[in-house]
């Protein structure tokens, strides 16, 4: 079968996406789950163990607390309560922690430190998987067993005020609720007032058993101005007041009912030094957990220091405290200080219930659970417990019994700790089989791409893909049979669950067919390569002759790409990947500058002239030709004083010489705009300076200037209609940002009311769609009616302009310069470097890829989930809509790579000499994007027990997967625009 | 080209390497607590000074560039001044390049500048000694097939290896090992020094190995 190189690349990347998807499914483990679905039938609680007989105490113990209030403060870091900030701003809480009737803990949250997974962890006691981050915005109802569900089943009346994620997670669970959205991060007073306003009334009423408050304000302050902001102190003081109010109200209630109440203060995650969260740094992971109740009354000399516990421990503790069954999937262990004042028999009963639940979970998830030390400890403890109960029932009330009880409790606690640890380790188990299949698919595609590289680089427009012969070969069927056999063996003997085995047989069979077909294609391609190696060698000889080996830039591009791929193995280089790209792009600019110097100061003119003679059409080439003649006519350094014709040429020449330096200067400016990564993120940068509220005017001027530059640069290639649309669209962007309060109009310096800016944003969307539509129409026209290539070029440029406008809308105003500089650099490079120096298509493609990557980081992105700007997904939408929000967020994040790739398509269609250039570029782009992904997948597989696997490597893996998906989309776009050249040969072949 | 030329080149390079080693050893006699890491800037100054002086001595003694004609004193003085200006210009332009590469603009200015000085010492000073303040000759030497003697060939190799050393020296900076030598610009200066020394060692050997293939236009 013959395939265009572009189409071939697109197919390969699509298959690779499939492989990566299978790998990701295997890599991100499913959470530990109890096999019996929650809520279907209420299992009777385990009876108390009794040696030789069965105990009559088979019901759940009575609740310890009659009412519980949970105050969850988003992004409450441990030092906000226990540290100096706490002492300063939260005096009441500090008193409670230090001297009051309370137990305080530092609860460690597991990454991803994002709100929804953390709420799930707090309420189910299980560890939600990493993929839950993706579903953070769209939280569907929680299906797993959890405290709220158990409380509802037990007939408790619950009230909730705060983040509406809860309402979505637990629909119809609350008798009364008021959800606030965290839609506007810049609002940090209203969200909390909406919660507090109900407090007075609710605390007076007594018709509830559980009250949950989720305050978002602190998190918003963190996102906007970081943990050192003065607003933090004010917010903490406000929260302190709320706690005091609740505590006093609970105490009054207690006097009426005479049973203790519980007040829980906790945070869902911490706050990094930049004020964001999502990763696994100590600031993000450590949250305070304070339990306050009159049952915890202590003597003045009883000093309790906050001990370190897991966030998942709260679910079990709450369940015990409220007399509920412990959630089935909980991997937490009871916080023992809560029950230590209870009678010994009750204490042991609680511990036993918790241990039974954990050991059941272990039995269901770990095949060899009997050998687990935790399980052995538990069996021992249970036996001792039975003996203890027997003695206790025999009315033996001596001190020895108490000692024995303490010993049993200690044994139980040890067992709980070990079991909990074993389960949380088990969460990190990988589905090796799916991972292996994914890796094999990705590697096979990569090898196929690499094998066809020589053909593509020698400008073959079409690739000969041996597809039909291997498909009917014996090898294919053998491979398929072997793989199916392996699949059956693996799935029947699997100890842990496999994703591939859970698929229907037909789908799994399809995957096997794909794997074996790819293998056969590779084998036959290899065989053919070996057979025509002699002829290929000749081709190489003839092709290699004129260019005489690698140029410096080509070598740098190759080595840089390889070096970047290798650097992905080190966690620091993944964290600081932006440094790698900045470094590479700078070096590239220096190499280019050296090349320009050489070609203009030394006598390389003849070569250039030859190039221009072959294609004298373009304006740039004419200019350069003049430059060359000027070069010959006058000595270097005096060019500007030469002949009149040489004067113009001299200007261009100096522009060419200055081009790389201008690009370097632009890159340096952009670099100081957004500091990203781990080491540099906390350093002050221009972006922070601009976004602070006191510099709004400067930001407005800068954004206006950038939008103007964007217009000037983007309108050049457009049709008049699109020019007008672009101008109005950019105006709309400014109006939108002014409407939502990011920018100010110069004539309206006072800040007026903030709206959502729906109207303005939709106004811009109309123009975006209009420009995109015009561009697509031109492209289609150029394909259906074979007009000259100008129409296609204009169409591509309009497509590009539409995307630029969309990017201008989605990027935050302080990032508008990034967009402007991106256009500026593209213009400089096109005019002064790529056109005059006549680079290879492959080189130009790789340069576009590098710049695209650098701009990904210039924009403030990093390999950390926390830096994704989710607000892009809400532009112009008044409610959360999943698909548009996801698409917008993805585009807003990958603006750099997408824009540079589309620019590449336009550049090639405008400048390329041969028809196959676009196909070749598409192929190179696919190759250069899939090499890092393939290597990274293998690296991650080998580093899967690395300490930083969850905090550093996994987010990067998600980014890489997303990048590959975008590459696939771009390759399809390339191929679609490239169809003109190949449509006719195909029809001929069919006929 | 004779083997004696290569021998002279080898001795000259040994002297240069020796000067680098001396710059590590000698200052410890009269500077207290001298070490490359702690008193890095002092070392940079010494190293630059030593290497420059050895280069000057080499320039004055064996006279490898036979083309230098006898000329008047004023000509010599202007030539010397021109060399100084070139050196300063190269220092400043290196500084600018480092800032473009991401070195802090306002902090650590002295450190960045001294790094520029030491890199100029390794690259510009030999060029000035060998080729004089003649940009055209420099461009010729650093382009393909533009070398006309083993001295220029070795100059090419040492200069490029110094640059490459400095370039590689930037690699460990983002790593989180928290070592004292990861501080800007220590790893880069040390990298440049290693690159320079490696270039000094490699170039005579390389020329020796390839002496059959090397044919120079003027020799």
TrEMBL record, chain B:
<comment type="pathway">
    <text>Glycolipid biosynthesis; glycosylphosphatidylinositol-anchor biosynthesis.</text>
</comment>
<keyword id="KW-0337">GPI-anchor biosynthesis</keyword>
<dbReference type="Pfam" id="PF06699">
    <property type="entry name" value="PIG-F"/>
</dbReference>
<dbReference type="GO" id="GO:0006506">
    <property type="term" value="P:GPI anchor biosynthetic process"/>
</dbReference>
<feature type="transmembrane region" description="Helical">
    <location>
        <begin position="183"/>
        <end position="209"/>
    </location>
</feature>
<feature type="transmembrane region" description="Helical">
    <location>
        <begin position="113"/>
        <end position="132"/>
    </location>
</feature>
<feature type="transmembrane region" description="Helical">
    <location>
        <begin position="153"/>
        <end position="171"/>
    </location>
</feature>
<keyword id="KW-0472">Membrane</keyword>
<feature type="transmembrane region" description="Helical">
    <location>
        <begin position="83"/>
        <end position="101"/>
    </location>
</feature>
<dbReference type="GO" id="GO:0005789">
    <property type="term" value="C:endoplasmic reticulum membrane"/>
</dbReference>
<keyword id="KW-0812">Transmembrane</keyword>
<feature type="transmembrane region" description="Helical">
    <location>
        <begin position="41"/>
        <end position="62"/>
    </location>
</feature>
<protein>
    <submittedName>
        <fullName>Phosphatidylinositol-glycan biosynthesis class F protein</fullName>
    </submittedName>
</protein>
<dbReference type="InterPro" id="IPR009580">
    <property type="entry name" value="GPI_biosynthesis_protein_Pig-F"/>
</dbReference>
<feature type="transmembrane region" description="Helical">
    <location>
        <begin position="9"/>
        <end position="29"/>
    </location>
</feature>
<keyword id="KW-0256">Endoplasmic reticulum</keyword>
<keyword id="KW-1133">Transmembrane helix</keyword>
């Amino acid at each position: 079968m013959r395939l265009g190189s572009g189409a071939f690349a697109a197919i390969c990347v699509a298959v690779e996406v499939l492989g990566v998807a299978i790998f990701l499914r295997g890599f991100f483990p499913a959470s530990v789950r109890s096999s019996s679905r929650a809520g279907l039938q209420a299992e009777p609680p385990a009876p108390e163990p009794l040696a030789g007989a069965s105990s009559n105490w088979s019901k759940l113990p009575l609740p310890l607390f009659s009412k519980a209030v949970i105050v969850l403060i988003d992004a409450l870091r441990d030092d906000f309560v226990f540290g100096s900030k706490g002492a300063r701003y939260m005096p009441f809480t500090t008193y409670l922690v230090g001297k009051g009737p309370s137990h305080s803990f530092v609860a460690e949250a597991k990454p991803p430190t994002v709100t929804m997974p953390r709420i799930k962890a707090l309420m189910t006691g299980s560890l939600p998987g990493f993929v839950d981050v993706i579903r953070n915005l769209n939280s569907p109802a929680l299906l797993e067993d959890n405290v709220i569900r158990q409380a509802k089943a037990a007939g408790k009346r619950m009230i909730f005020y705060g983040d509406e994620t809860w309402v979505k997670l637990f629909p119809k669970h609350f008798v009364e609720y008021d959800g606030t959205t965290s839609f506007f991060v810049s609002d940090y007073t209203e969200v909390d007032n909406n919660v507090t306003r109900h407090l007075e009334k609710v605390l007076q009423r007594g018709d509830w058993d559980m009250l949950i408050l989720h305050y978002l304000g602190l998190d918003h302050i963190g996102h906007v101005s970081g943990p050192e902001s003065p607003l933090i102190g004010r917010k903490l003081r406000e929260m302190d007041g709320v706690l005091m109010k609740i505590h006093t109200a609970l105490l009054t209630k207690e006097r009426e009912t005479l049973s203790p109440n519980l007040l829980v203060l906790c945070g869902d995650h911490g706050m990094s030094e930049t004020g964001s969260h999502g990763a696994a740094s100590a600031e993000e992971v450590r949250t305070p957990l304070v339990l306050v109740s009159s049952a915890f009354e202590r003597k003045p000399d009883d000093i309790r220091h906050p001990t370190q516990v897991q966030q998942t421990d709260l679910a079990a503790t709450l369940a015990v405290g409220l007399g509920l069954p412990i959630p089935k999937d909980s991997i937490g262990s009871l916080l023992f200080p809560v029950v230590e004042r209870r009678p010994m028999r009750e204490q042991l009963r609680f511990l036993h219930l918790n241990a039974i639940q954990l050991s059941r979970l272990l039995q269901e998830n770990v095949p060899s659970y009997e050998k687990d030390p935790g399980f052995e400890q538990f069996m021992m403890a249970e036996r001792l417990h039975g003996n203890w109960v027997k003695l206790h029932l025999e009315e033996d009330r001596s001190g020895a019994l108490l000692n024995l009880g303490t010993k049993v409790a200690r044994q139980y606690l040890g067992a709980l700790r070990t079991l909990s640890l074993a389960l949380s380790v088990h969460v990190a188990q990988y589905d090796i089989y799916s991972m292996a299949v994914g890796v094999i698919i990705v590697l096979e595609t990569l090898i196929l791409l690499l094998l066809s590289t020589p053909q593509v680089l020698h400008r073959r427009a079409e690739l000969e893909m041996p597809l039909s012969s291997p498909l009917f070969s014996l090898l294919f069927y053998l491979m398929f049979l072997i793989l199916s056999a392996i699949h059956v063996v693996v799935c029947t003997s699997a100890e842990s669950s496999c994703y591939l085995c859970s698929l229907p047989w037909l789908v799994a069979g399809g995957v096997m067919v794909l794997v074996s077909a790819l293998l056969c294609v590779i084998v036959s391609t290899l065989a053919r390569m070996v057979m025509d190696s002699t002829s290929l060698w000749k081709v190489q000889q003839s092709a290699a002759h004129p260019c005489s080996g690698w140029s410096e830039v080509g070598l740098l591009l190759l080595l840089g790409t390889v070096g970047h791929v290798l650097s992905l193995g080190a966690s620091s280089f993944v964290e600081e990947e932006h440094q790698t790209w900045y470094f590479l792009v700078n070096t590239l600019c220096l190499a280019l500058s050296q090349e320009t110097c050489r070609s203009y100061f030394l006598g390389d003119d003849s070569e250039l002239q030859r190039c221009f003679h072959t294609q004298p059409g373009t304006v740039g080439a004419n200019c350069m030709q003049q430059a060359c003649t000027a070069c010959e006519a006058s000595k270097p350094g005096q060019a500007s004083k030469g002949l009149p014709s040489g004067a113009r040429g001299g200007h261009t020449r100096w522009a060419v010489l200055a081009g790389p330096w201008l690009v370097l200067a632009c890159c340096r400016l952009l670099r100081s705009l957004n500091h990203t990564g781990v080491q540099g993120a906390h350093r002050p940068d221009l972006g922070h300076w601009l976004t602070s509220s006191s510099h709004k005017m400067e930001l407005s001027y800068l954004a206006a200037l950038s939008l103007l530059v964007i217009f000037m640069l983007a309108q050049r290639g457009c049709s008049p209609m699109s020019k007008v649309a672009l101008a109005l669209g950019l105006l709309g962007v400014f109006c939108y940002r002014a409407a939502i309060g990011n920018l100010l109009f110069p004539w309206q310096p006072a800040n007026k009311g903030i709206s959502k800016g729906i109207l303005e944003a939709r106004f811009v969307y109309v123009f975006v769609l209009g420009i995109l539509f015009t561009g697509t129409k031109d492209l289609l026209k150029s394909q259906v009616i074979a007009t000259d290539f100008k129409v296609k070029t204009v169409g591509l440029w309009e497509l590009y302009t539409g995307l630029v406008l969309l990017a201008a809308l989605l990027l935050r105003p302080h990032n508008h310069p990034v967009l402007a500089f991106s256009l500026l650099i593209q213009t400089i490079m096109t005019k002064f470097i790529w056109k005059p120096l006549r680079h290879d298509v492959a080189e130009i493609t790789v340069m576009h890829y590098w710049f695209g990557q650098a701009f990904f980081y210039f924009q403030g992105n990093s390999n950390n989930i926390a830096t994704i700007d989710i607000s892009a997904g809400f532009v112009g939408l008044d409610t959360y809509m999943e698909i548009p929000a996801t698409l917008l967020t993805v585009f807003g994040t990958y603006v750099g790579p997408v824009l540079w790739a589309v620019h590449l398509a336009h550049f090639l269609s405008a400048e390329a000499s041969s028809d196959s250039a676009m196909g070749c570029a598409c192929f190179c782009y696919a190759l250069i994007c899939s090499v890092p992904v393939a290597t990274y997948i293998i690296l991650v597989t080998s580093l899967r027990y690395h300490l930083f696997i969850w905090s550093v490597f996994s987010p990067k893996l998600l980014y890489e997967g997303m990048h590959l998906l975008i590459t696939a989309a771009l390759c399809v776009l390339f191929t679609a625009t490239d169809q003109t050249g190949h449509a006719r040969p195909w029809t001929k072949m069919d006929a | 080209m004779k083997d004696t030329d290569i021998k002279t080149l080898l001795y000259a390079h040994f002297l240069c390497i020796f000067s680098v080693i001396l710059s590590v050893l000698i200052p410890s006699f009269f500077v207290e607590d001298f070490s490359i890491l702690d008193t890095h800037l002092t070392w940079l100054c010494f190293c630059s000074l030593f290497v420059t002086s050895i280069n000057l001595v080499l320039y004055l003694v064996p006279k490898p560039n036979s083309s230098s004609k006898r000329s008047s004193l004023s000509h010599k003085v202007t030539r010397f001044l021109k060399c100084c200006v070139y050196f300063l210009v190269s220092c400043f332009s290196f500084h600018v390049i480092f800032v473009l590469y991401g070195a802090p603009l306002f902090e650590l200015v002295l450190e960045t500048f001294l790094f520029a000085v030491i890199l100029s010492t390794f690259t510009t000073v030999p060029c000035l000694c060998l080729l004089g303040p003649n940009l055209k000759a420099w461009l010729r030497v650093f382009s393909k097939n533009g070398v006309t003697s083993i001295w220029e060939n070795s100059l090419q190799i040492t200069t490029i290896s110094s640059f490459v050393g400095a370039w590689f020296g930037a690699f460990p900076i983002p790593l989180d090992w928290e070592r004292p030598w990861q501080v800007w610009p220590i790893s880069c200066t040390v990298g440049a020094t290693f690159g320079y020394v490696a270039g000094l060692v490699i170039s005579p050997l390389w020329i020796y190995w390839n002496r059959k293939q090397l044919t120079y236009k003027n020799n």
